[in-house]
Design a protein that fits this description.
Layout (H helix, E strand, L loop, with lengths): L4 E5 L4 E5 L8 H13 L22 H14 L4 E8 L2 E12 L4 E2 L6 E2 L4 H14 L26 H5 L23 H8 L17 H14 L3 H10 L8 E2 L11 E3 L5 E3 L5 H8 L1 E3 L1 H12 L6 H7 L21 E5 L2 E10 L2 E8 L4 E7 L7 H14 L10
Helix pairs in contact: 2-11, 3-6, 5-6, 6-8
């Protein structure tokens, strides 16, 4: 649960620490993206028209991306893979391969429901920003968290902002010895009571350290202000009103929920540990499909949900380094904000037992790519497939470059 690995990243070969074993751990993705972006940097801008289109005039990714999915499916032990590509929230391509239920041989489709794990964090951050930007504001980003969660009153420097950009210094609750007792269900107050007496890992606001505790506590802030459960508030405020009908707190009540898998010692698929949504809460409890996630990416980043200034806040990392490395943080408010091929890229990934996913958007032109799978393995085939798709459709030498 708390195993650590060290990677050499980027041009400086600085060591980053990734907590690949933690629930919903996404710091591994920061490492992968930093390395990929460093190797693929390019200041070339897109121009002109692409002639790689279908008869309808739409870009046709079928032969290129279907081939990448097929190769990933055959070279990795993956029950299923789902991919969607969209422009400004409109899905232009989607395809899936494999099975969401191996025993019953249920095929994956673009409407298959996967646990999205840490991608939940950007939804939680968006709820906080909605509260901060309503008229009158329900909170200030500079408020100490103790104003809403009195149990966390030991350090007034732990603010809403520090929770949003993961600079609060809170111990990651997924590393606590009692975490396994919470897998079958836990109240938010129980987790917060376990965190309250623990010293901070570093002074609040002084450094970046990926911690699932930060968005977990933000869930409690939302409940304190709204008087509703996190699950009810996100449904009533965000998912329902904005038509995100395939996105839910926990399993979909009506959709085709994928079963999560891992590998046994013989390499066979076996059902992974099932963790109650309450143990993941505002840090990782949501489920969705690739179609809804592409829609969500532009809803958030394109300005339909929040004012432009608020989106800019969410996608601007603070001028701090990581607590265990000298590289600047690339973490905004529940979002990784970086650059790839000389263009702004906003993204996040997630992993929880049985599931792995990545979603990303080039914010300059609104191209989004989402990849999901129902497997949790150490080599992260989803991340590899995502990188290959991004390169195929957006690299300077791509036939799609002028559009994507």
């Amino acid at each position: 649960m708390n195993s650590c690995q060290t990677f050499a990243v980027g041009r400086s070969s600085t060591h980053w620490r990734t907590i690949a074993g933690r629930l919903n751990g996404s710091l591994w993705l920061l490492v992968a993206i930093a390395a990929f972006a460093a190797m693929a940097g390019c200041n070339e801008s897109a121009s002109g028209q692409s002639n790689f289109t279908s008869a309808s005039g739409q870009l046709d990714f079928t032969s290129v991306v279907n081939g990448l999915i097929s190769t990933a499916q055959t070279t990795n032990p993956v029950p299923s893979l789902c991919v969607a590509i969209g422009k400004k929230g409109n899905v232009i391509y989607s395809s899936c391969s494999g099975l969401i239920d191996v025993a019953d041989k249920i095929p994956a489709t673009p409407t298959s429901i996967y646990r999205i794990a840490s991608v939940t964090k950007q939804f939680t951050a968006a709820l906080i920003m909605l509260l901060a930007n309503q008229n009158p504001p329900a909170l200030s980003l500079s408020d100490p968290v103790s104003k809403y969660v009195p149990e966390l009153s030991s350090d007034p420097a732990v603010t809403i902002t520090s929770l949003l950009n993961m600079s609060a210094g809170l111990v990651d609750y997924t590393t606590l010895p009692e975490v396994t007792s919470w897998f079958n269900g836990v109240a938010p107050a129980t987790v917060i009571d376990a965190l309250a007496p623990l010293p901070l890992d570093f002074p609040a606001g002084a450094a970046f350290e990926y911690s699932n505790s930060d968005p977990f506590v933000l869930g409690a802030v939302i409940e304190s202000i709204s008087g509703m459960s996190y699950s009810a508030y996100i449904q009533n405020t965000l998912l329902g009103p904005y038509g995100l009908n395939s996105t839910h707190y926990g399993p979909s009540p009506t959709g085709a929920n994928a079963i999560g898998y891992t590998l046994d010692d013989s390499g066979a698929f076996v059902p992974a540990l099932v963790i109650d949504p309450s143990a993941l809460y505002a840090a990782g409890a949501l489920t969705s499909d690739v179609l809804d996630i592409v829609k969500w990416d532009w809803l958030l980043l394109g300005g339909a949900l929040l004012p432009a200034a608020a989106v800019s806040q969410m996608t601007t990392p603070p001028p701090i380094n990581g607590s265990s490395h000298s590289e600047p943080s690339v973490y905004g408010f529940g979002l990784i904000a970086t650059e790839l091929y000389g263009r702004p890229l906003v993204m996040h990934g997630g992993t929880v037992p049985g599931f792995n996913d990545v979603t990303s958007t080039f914010t300059d032109i609104g191209w989004s790519i989402a990849v999901m799978s129902n497997i949790s393995v150490n080599n992260y085939p989803v991340t590899s497939l995502w990188r290959q798709i991004v390169a195929a459709v957006s690299a300077p030498d791509s036939q799609f470059r002028s559009e994507c």
